[in-house]
């Protein structure tokens, strides 16, 4: 179906989502199967970074809102959700602020905890009935995930294939909440003890047509219903301050700001604009595949460059090479930084852990082309995977290739396992490298960041390699510049490499208003 033939209905209604302000049309095409692009005319595209953020910039531009890899986890309205006081409430009746039961993993052990509803919404979509050997049956959306003995799994294969995950098959054993410890939740324990001894073996997943389903965001990223642990979209609530609601705008609905270049050009011409550094690629990749169709970035780059606004771009997408002439032109007028992320060289490991992204060789070629064009480029070696990509030999080889490609600097960042990422990664690890499960449980027993002893050892080894390859420039830390640009913050110590952020001249710092000094 051709793009030009995709027109929105006259009443502006979108199936399963509210109307968007400035909506021009909604587009679907076989080239992007399963994704709907909602083309809007935005009133503003400059976004201030929320207060308290550790990022070393205060403004961003995101021509695209949403993620083509986003998931939707939903259940029918009658599903009883376990409350933190031990009772239950139908999914349809949940309200923002309600206290329900979720889970956390500490010391390698998952336990039940109180969690709160941050967002709640509904949509209409295909559903399936999941039947277990003990008679339990839940009706959920086809993208739904449930916790099994081997980690989170999608209920349907098609959803798993679309998101790089795994799916359940008859004979799999689901993790019953009654088997999890629940310290401090006495009422919950009493409620669940009735199910002890239940056979949670999957019998069948049966298509059930379409129904109205509900989803939530909770503080833990999950909830308990019918004695089972259900995944929900932990990231949706972050979109409420990014001009998107927490519901259907997020899942497979990519909002495209068609007029982003024109609106940005107007905003940066304003007498009130103080020409602070604007970062791109820190929320959604500006060079995702859709940019090949919409070509928004050339105009955005020109608007920033001609207005005297320093800019930086962070991407995995090799499409940036198309715009090198525009970025070079901007670099003649303003400080420019370009960052490329590259985690490893092994093509087989890359296909396993980063499916669908440009290959390591393609990204090294991008670094080389950026450098050959005379632009600074910094490389984020991220994430380093303990036991897989963290050997001196592997890091030395990768950093050698990065230096040969002409990078100005590199930063090496150990894997972070935040909620959502943690479950996916542990599932992948259980399938591909089960011998490392115990080591990861120990390294990440205190939360999202790897233990300090590992970080210190990695930093010590990497420092030698960075100096060897001339890539040790940097010093912009996640939390500002500390100790003259060389300090380390305990909770997030990795610096941004030279080339990834624009080098703002001292003259601009001295002439900047006082409120800008902390940024510049």
Automatic annotation (TrEMBL):
<keyword id="KW-0411">Iron-sulfur</keyword>
<feature type="domain" description="Radical SAM core">
    <location>
        <begin position="214"/>
        <end position="459"/>
    </location>
</feature>
<dbReference type="InterPro" id="IPR030934">
    <property type="entry name" value="Intein_C"/>
</dbReference>
<dbReference type="Pfam" id="PF04055">
    <property type="entry name" value="Radical_SAM"/>
</dbReference>
<feature type="region of interest" description="Disordered">
    <location>
        <begin position="476"/>
        <end position="507"/>
    </location>
</feature>
<protein>
    <submittedName>
        <fullName>Rv2578c family radical SAM protein</fullName>
    </submittedName>
</protein>
<keyword id="KW-0408">Iron</keyword>
<feature type="compositionally biased region" description="Basic and acidic residues">
    <location>
        <begin position="483"/>
        <end position="492"/>
    </location>
</feature>
<keyword id="KW-0479">Metal-binding</keyword>
<dbReference type="InterPro" id="IPR006141">
    <property type="entry name" value="Intein_N"/>
</dbReference>
<dbReference type="InterPro" id="IPR036844">
    <property type="entry name" value="Hint_dom_sf"/>
</dbReference>
<dbReference type="InterPro" id="IPR007197">
    <property type="entry name" value="rSAM"/>
</dbReference>
<dbReference type="InterPro" id="IPR006638">
    <property type="entry name" value="Elp3/MiaA/NifB-like_rSAM"/>
</dbReference>
<dbReference type="InterPro" id="IPR058240">
    <property type="entry name" value="rSAM_sf"/>
</dbReference>
<dbReference type="InterPro" id="IPR040086">
    <property type="entry name" value="MJ0683-like"/>
</dbReference>
